[in-house]
Amino acid sequence: MNEFWVLLTGSLVGITCGLTGVFLILRKTAMIADAISHTVLFGIVVAFMITQSLSGFWMLVGAAIAGLLTTFLVQLLQSGGLQEDAAIGVVFTSLFALGVLFITLFAGNVHLDVEHVLMGEIAFVPWDTWDILGFSMPKAVWMLLIVLLFNILFLFFFYKEMKLTTFDPVFALSIGLPIVAMHYSYMTLVSLTTVAAFDSVGAVLVVAMLIGPAATAYLMSKSVLRMMIWSMFFGITAAITGYYLAKLWNTSIAGMMAAMIGVIFMLVFVFKPHDGWIWKMFKRIKLKDTKVHVES
């Protein structure tokens, strides 16, 4: 039964992050997910300092605020003339360092540490449960299901607006769509997804799941909807194969899941029909042989 909960948690991380990561890739803001996945530590620690509680609700609130703060500060620095990657680097390192400092000063006696946030331990998921409406499931599963529901509802109601503000922001602005509000709403979802996932699997796997499956799906898809489906599929595949390989080789489960995301991406990049690296190399060789034959 414990294996089932671990596999379900990993699959839910793959589904939730895979769905959320699609617009990060399309908007070319993938690296802000890396920043948010680390700066939410600052939000969680501040939430603990205020409430003296490690409940899932206050973690989500603190993470959402930290994610919004990260996004706001990056936008502020960009508007001041700093390049986006530099702005992300400054905000990311500063807020993460503050989170580490606050843990050392104010949360040294509770189960809240940098290693747990970065690496997580998905194998311990089945022993931390919540009883809600008569159902007992691991806390990570409840949190991921709740955040997945938020993501689905957001995309259901604002799918067209997200597409328009992503591909043609000038036109979206001209017809009165609230581009800034959509951006910050989406970044709030990224923050909630991040904290719901890294409590069990760590920030490293969260970043991999947010970027890797969506980037792989981008290579496979010609539409946003298909990209979402492929992204969730690749996330689930990486979670399941990573778990069994980690069990076979007795290594880190989260680390192996993240490694499988990279493996899947490279397989698609190299072997994808018509557009893959092997296929393009074969076409170049064939074209070269044709030119030589014609010239001779």
**Rg of Cα set:** 21 Å
Helix content range: over 70%
How much of the sequence lies in strands comes to under 5%
Unreliable spans? none
Overall, the morphology is globular
Distance between the termini: 69 Å
- How many domains, in number, for the residues? 1
Q: Write the CATH fold name.
A: ABC transporter involved in vitamin B12 uptake, BtuC
At the first level of CATH, the class is Mainly Alpha
Considering the protein shown, what is the CATH homologous superfamily?
A: ABC transporter involved in vitamin B12 uptake, BtuC
Q: What would the average pLDDT be, to the nearest integer? A: 85
* H/E topology pattern: HHHHHEEHHHHHH
**Biggest β-sheet, characterized?**
2 strands, antiparallel
Strand order of the largest sheet: 1-2
Number of helices: 11
Q: Tell me the total number of β-strands.
A: 2
Structural class of the secondary structure composition? mainly alpha
The CATH architecture category equals: Orthogonal Bundle
Report on this model:
The structure is a single chain. The protein is mostly helical and about 300 residues long. Helices cover about 80% and strands about 5% of the residues. The chain has a single domain (about 1-295), classed as ABC transporter involved in vitamin B12 uptake, BtuC. The protein has eleven helices and two strands. A hairpin with a 2-residue loop joins strand 1 (about 130) and strand 2. It is a multi-pass membrane protein. It holds the Pfam family ABC-3.
